[in-house]
Design goal:
heterodimer, A: 309 residues, alpha/beta, 2-enoyl-CoA Hydratase, Chain A, domain 1, 2 domains, 8-stranded mixed beta sheet, two-stranded antiparallel sheet, 9 helices, 11 strands, globular, B: 370 residues, 42% helix
Chain lengths: 309, 370
């Protein structure tokens, strides 16, 4: 794992708003404080909290934050996978400095003039400030162990990684480019929000758009690996994320259609232990493999090797 | 328990199904009934002629009143109409406008989900494959159908029927009427997300005309799961949304009580969707809504279906899938500045890697030849 000795060496977009506290030296998703008006996903593991020390959501151990960060946001004691920012994941997965971002200038519009407690454009601007990202998805091309591919990723920290027009458009263009260039495709999903409410029906239709692009990609002989991370829910799970030729998931990731809270309210029985977690999906036949974050890059390389001449 | 009123019989909506804004209509209907009763009593007597005139006037006013009220429904009122207990459903339309319906059951994997009805049918002379959500007309059927919330086996059954239709070039009619795909333990165990995704992907490639109509509730992924078509219409008082107004209100304001505000914010009515270019046509309902006149609604729906099949027939068969692809491909609202003619010069990685072909991403919205 040559490039992974220092997972943060390649962070290219510093997070201007994160304001890392004393002791936290590197900007990353885990250090972003959650906005107060954000609705937390039920059962979602907390972001790595501020400070030098932190408590693990998995084993409750008190951990030295830097050690967790060095470990790609995985608990060194119990392997609990904390969320990880898109750019950090790019550094984890792709060959160093090979990611060429496409369509970076796509920005969300406000077709519904959506205003809940604040106008949607303000919310977007705040998220952009906070995360250093233009939108929840990054797409482009890169290399994994020398194999060229089209790569897309959603950051679960940007409006819960939800899919609006920009995420749908970026992914669709990336899929179309992968089709045209006859390249393999990897999309790493992390979305607690599913289809983004703030763009209403436009978000719903991105499910159709991305899935149709994948249908063409499949027909043209493509190879799509979908990587599911915590959490992958709703409209993202019910479209491109579930359409991989091979589907991988990180351990214990929450993956499903309806949120556990909604299901709980509907069926009014206690949800089984481990419900909608990666292990549950593996047991029921909906994913191929559960892969520890440290092994993801090598697993992707192995898989890509089978379909790359 | 609701009475087993069959909407097909054109009975007036029973009292317990009155929506608040319908009150003036019920009042005028009561007045009309009273006048008609008096007319029946006064048959042949002196005042009968005057009563007849009065009845005519009230009847005319009643139509005007229904039109006026239903032309100005708020989004939340539209949602209420779309969920009306007596609003015609897939099986009603099957009886009213389709002939020789031959139902097909089962997904060949898990079971048969009554929340989605599939089968061969005739629409006039045209043989078609029918696919539609069914909510249930009485309590027993509603319970069996989970109120129109389909399980994965329902979507799998739909896809099986649609693939069969495509092989035999039968046009597919999809009637959408669901609060959403069922949120339950077994639904998740059997891959609700995966099967909806599968349907979206497969429907985009079915080599046969597909017409989709939202006849009541167009609830999110559960609606879209049978919603990929060459022509998409909505009945006038239906809605189509990424999330239910209650769900949206709960997320935004922590209480489902603000559902009226959420319904407004989500822009989920047929008028909104037509304006956004998401749907092709609004199918006008009879005065007072489809629940007052299921036959009238059926006639309007049949008109749309026939018209749509004729329109799709104009598309050359080899362009049908490209046409369907572009129909959904172009949907999206975003800014792009500067337009993506080139990769931005400061884009990370552009200089660092010279060992592969330079890639120019396509211009905004341009389809990839693939």
């Amino acid at each position: 794992m040559e490039q992974l000795s220092s997972p943060h060496a390649d962070v290219r977009t510093p997070d201007p708003a994160a304001g890392p506290p004393a002791g936290a030296t590197l900007p990353m998703a885990a250090n972003r404080s959650a906005p107060t008006d954000h609705v937390p996903l039920p059962h979602a593991s907390k972001k790595v909290p501020e400070g030098v020390w932190m408590r693990c959501d998995g084993c409750s151990a008190t951990l030295f934050r830097k050690e967790v960060e060095r470990n790609r946001n995985v608990c060194p004691q119990c392997d609990h996978h904390f969320t990880r920012a898109a750019r950090d994941r790019i550094a984890d997965l792709l060959d160093p400095d090979t990611f060429e971002e496409w369509y970076a200038d796509l920005r969300p519009a406000d077709p519904l003039s959506f205003n809940d407690r604040r106008p949607y454009p303000d919310r977007v601007a705040a998220e952009q400030q906070r995360t250093g990202l233009n939108e929840a998805a990054l797409v482009g091309q890169g290399f994994i162990k020398g194999i060229r591919l089209v790569f897309g990723i959603t950051d679960s920290g940007f409006i819960m990684g939800s899919m609006g027009s920009v995420v749908g458009e970026k992914l669709t263009r990336a899929i179309e480019e992968a089709t045209r260039l006859r390249l393999p495709l990897v999309i790493v999903s992390g979305s607690g929000g599913g289809a983004r409410m703030h763009e209403g029906i436009f978000s719903l239709m991105q499910m159709a758009k991305t899935s149709a692009a994948l249908a063409r990609y499949h027909a043209a002989g493509g190879f799509f690996i979908s990587v599911l991370t915590h959490p992958t829910m709703g409209g993202v799970a019910a479209s491109f994320a579930s359409l991989g030729d091979v589907i991988l998931a990180e351990p214990r990731a929450l993956i499903g259609f309806a949120g556990p809270k909604v299901i709980q309210q509907t069926v009014r029985v206690k949800l089984p232990e481990g419900f909608q977690r990666s292990e549950f999906l593996l047991e029921h036949g909906f994913i191929d493999r559960i892969v520890h974050r440290k092994d993801l890059r090598s697993t992707l390389a192995q898989l890509l090797n089978y379909v790359t001449p | 328990m609701p009475p087993a009123t069959n909407p097909n019989t054109n009975t007036k909506p029973a009292n317990q199904y009155r929506l608040p804004f319908e009150a003036p209509i019920f009042e005028m209907e009561a007045r009309l009934l009273e006048l008609e009763a008096r007319q029946a009593q006064a048959k042949g007597a002196d005042g009968a002629a005057g009563l007849t005139d009065q009845i005519k006037t009230v009847r005319r006013e009643l139509v005007g009143l229904k039109r006026a009220i239903f032309a100005n429904l708020s989004p939340w009122e539209t949602v209420q109409v779309s969920r009306h207990q007596l609003r015609p459903q897939s099986r009603d339309y099957l009886e009213l406008i389709f002939d020789q319906f031959l139902e097909l059951h089962g997904d060949r994997a898990v079971g048969d989900d009554p929340a989605i009805v599939t089968g061969f049918a005739h629409l006039g002379e045209q043989k078609v494959m029918f696919v539609g959500h069914q909510k249930g007309r009485d309590l027993a059927e509603r319970t069996a159908c989970n109120f129109g919330c389909a399980h994965p086996e329902g979507y799998r059954k739909a896809l099986r029927a649609m693939k069969l239709a495509a092989r035999h070039r039968l046009p597919i009619i999809c009637l959408i009427d669901t609060p959403g795909a069922y949120p339950g333990i077994q639904a998740e165990e059997r891959g609700q997300a995966a099967i909806i995704a599968e349907n979206l992907m497969a429907m985009s490639q079915l080599q046969t005309p597909i017409v989709c109509v939202v006849i009541g509730e167009g609830g999110s992924g559960g609606a879209l799961g049978i919603g990929i078509g060459d022509r998409v219409g909505m009945l006038e008082h239906s809605y189509y949304s990424v999330i239910s107004p209650e769900g949206c209100a709960t997320i935004l304001w922590k209480t489902a009580d603000r559902k009226d505000r959420a319904a407004e914010a989500l822009k989920m009515t047929a008028k909104d969707l037509l304006r956004f270019g998401i749907i092709d046509e609004i199918i006008e309902e009879p005065p007072g809504g489809a629940h007052r006149d299921p036959r009238g609604a059926a006639v309007a729906l049949k008109g749309f279906l026939s018209r749509s099949l004729r329109k799709i027939a104009e598309i050359p068969a080899d362009q049908l899938l490209e046409h369907r692809y572009q129909k959904f491909r172009r949907i999206g609202a975003f800014f792009e500045d500067p337009p993506a003619e080139c990769v931005p010069p400061d884009s990370p990685g552009t200089e660092a890697r010279a060992d592969s072909d330079p890639v120019t991403p396509p211009a905004n919205g341009a389809p990839s030849p693939s």
